Predict the structure of Protoheme IX farnesyltransferase.
Amino acid sequence: MRTLALGHHLSARRLHAYYVLTKPRVNTLIVFCAVIGMFLAIPDGLPAPATVLAATLGIAAVAGAAAAINCLIEQGIDARMARTRGRPLPRGELTTGEVATFSAALGGSGLAILYLLVNPLTMGLTLATFVGYAVVYTMLLKPHTPQNIVIGGASGAMPPVLGWAAATGEVSADALLLFLIIFAWTPPHFWALALYRTADYARAGLPMLPVTHGAEFTRLSVLLYTLILFGVSLLPFATRMSGWLYLAAAVLLGARFIGFAWKLYVDYSDPLARRTFRYSIVYLSALFAALLADHYLPI
Ligand code: HEM
Ligand SMILES: CC(C)=CCC/C(C)=C/CC/C(C)=C/COP(=O)(O)OP(=O)(O)O
C-alpha cells in the first residue's frame, strides 16, 4: 500500500516535471497568437473548427517540444541561474534521455497532426520555427552575440504566420504585419527582464545586452524598440486590415509601454524593470485580443 502511494506520488511529480519542461506559460501566449492568426486570416466568417483544433494542438505540441529541447541543451546554464535552477533537469527530476525521448515524441506527434490534419505548409513552417528556436537561437546565437534575441525573436514571432497558414493554406502580407509586431516587441520584452537579471546572465556566461553593453545602453535600446513597436503596431490600421477599435487599443497600450520604457530610461530601478517586463506580456496579449475583437466587431 505504501509503495503504491509512493509510486503514485512519484509519477504525479514526474508528470508535472514534463509539463514544466514545455514552458507552459510562455507557450500559452505563443499559441494564443497563433489562434488569433487563424481567425484574422478569414475575412468574413470563421475558420473551420476542425482545422482550428488540429492546428492549435499541433502548434502547441511542437512549441512544447522546442521548449523541452531548450531545457535539454541549456541544463548546465540553467543550473547556474537563480531563475532557472529549479527546472526539472538541473534538479535531477528527469534524465537527458527521458527529455530527448519526450521531446521527439511530442514534436513528432505535433508535426504529424499538422501534416495530416492541417496542411504541409503549416507543418513546414512550424518545423522551421522549431529549428529556429531550438537550434539557431539556443545553440548558435544565444551563447555568442548580444543580438541573440533580436535575430532569434524571428522564431517567437512566427505563431500568427503559422495560424494564418493553417487557416488558409498560404501566407499573406497581413500575416507578415503580425510577425513584425511580435518581432519588434521581443527586444523590450526580454531586455526589461535581462536588466534585473543581469547578474544571473553574467554568472552563466551569456552575452546578453546588459552584460556586454551595460545597463544604460540596454535601457536606451528598450526605449528605441518600444518606439519602433508603437509605429509597427499602427500598420494593421494603416493598411486597413484593422479598424478604429484596434487603433484605439494600439495607441493606448503602446503609450503605456512607452511610458514604462521612458521611466526605465530616466529613473531605473529593478522593481520598475520587473513591472515593465510584466507589462510587456499584458501588452501583447491585449493587442492581439484587440485585433480579434476588431475583426468581428467592426467599429
Ligand atoms: C527570443 C525571444 C524571447 C526571449 C529570449 C524570451 C525570454 C523570456 C524569459 C527569459 C522569460 C522569463 C521566464 C521566467 O520568469 O522564468 C520570459 C517569460 C515570458 N515570455 Fe518570453 N521570450 C521571448 C519571446 C517570447 C514570445 C514570442 C512570447 C509570446 C508570444 C513570450 C511570452 C512570454 C510569457 C507569457 C512569459 C511569462 C512566463 C511566466 O509568467 O512564467 N516570450 N520570456
Ligand atoms: C514551434 C514553435 C511555435 C516554437 C516556438 C518557439 C518558442 C518556444 C519561442 C519562445 C521564445 C522563448 C520561450 C524564449 C525563452 O528564452 P530562453 O530560452 O532564452 O529563456 P530561458 O532562459 O528561460 O531558457
The radius of gyration is 20 Å. Residues 260 and 276 are 6 Å apart (CA to CA). The chain has two domains: 8-171, 173-299.
